Amino acid sequence: RRKVPKPKVLEGLDVESLAKYISSDKCKKIVLMLGAGVSTSAGIPDFRSPGTGLYANLARLNLPFPEAVFEINFFRRNPVPFYTLAKELYPGKFRPTPTHSFIKLLADHSLLHVCFTQNIDTLERRAGIPDDKIIEAHGSFAVQRCIDCKVLYDDDLMKEKVTAGEVATCEECGGYVKPDIVFFGEALPPQFIQTIPQVGEADLLIILGTSLTVHPFASLAEMAGRKCPRVLINLEGVGGIGSRPDDLLLLGKCDDIVRELCQALGWENKLEEEWEKT
Ligand code: CNA
């Protein structure tokens, strides 16, 4: 039988030990890595879940391959599939989840160091997490600009176009307008690059609802220090989490596990109150 190494920082590999660590004075800086799985309970499909994920449902858009919807070269030729998808994902339609409210509580307790998110739905901001703690690594729908001359395009006009299912074009040069969402083949925002070193300062890394397949985002998990416990809260095991002695896998739905953790922390009422506000 293979011997399972004992954790070195956590007392045990379970929710109670995690709560104890979070409540202790050893844990002051928590870094989070979020993916689409934290927003699925809000009604926003993720990419890769079989059957329900966006990639499984893009057939009707006549794409050469699913990822093409987020490829800048494809968008230049045909922006319609992206706009079709944008209409479904557009912010404003969705309410933050209990998991987002848990992150707000971490911020309220001055425990949140950085919340890195791959999500473009802006639900972190909607949940009241302070802007200066959020790094939207793949951009968001907050602003948009022409892909050719880069001139900004009006927010209200963009909303009208997306809602009407029309493609927005630049008023200056006629180029297609695209929200500042990072497509495959585009650089990540400078704030992301600048904030990477803060992962190394973390006392705890919590990874939620991501398949950890998109790089460089996924590689943040490897930048946590050796003494930093890494927690994965996800439907499935991903990205080699489990290879270090203080890696804790909590497999299941984010909201369920977060509620369990809040109970262990004595935060269950605060969580529901916070979520009610959203
Ligand atoms: P992904 O590759 O679709 O993976 C999602 C992961 O979450 C999978 O491992 C699922 O098993 C897991 N999951 C799904 N639902 C739950 C749940 N309720 N509880 C726990 N785990 C769950 O998505 P990633 O975020 O890893 O991929 C990166 C892409 C997805 C980013 O570039 C995003 O921009 C993009 N995306 C964002 C949104 C959004 O903003 N809400 C939606 C869809 C895709």
Automatic annotation (TrEMBL):
Entry keyword annotation includes Mitochondrion: yes
Keywords: Metal-binding, Mitochondrion, NAD, Transferase, Zinc
Localization of this protein: Mitochondrion
Residues of the Deacetylase sirtuin-type domain: 8-268
Active site residues of this protein: 138 (proton acceptor)
Binding positions for Zn(2+) per the UniProt entry: 146, 149, 170, 173
Catalytic activity: N(6)-acetyl-L-lysyl-[protein] + NAD(+) + H2O = 2''-O-acetyl-ADP-D-ribose + nicotinamide + L-lysyl-[protein]
Cofactor(s) annotated in UniProt: Zn(2+)
Superkingdom, natural source: Eukaryota
EC code: 2.3.1.286
Chief location bin: mitochondrion
Family of the protein in this entry: Belongs to the sirtuin family. Class I subfamily.
Name of the featured protein: NAD-dependent protein deacetylase
Residues of the full protein shown: 4 to 281 of 395
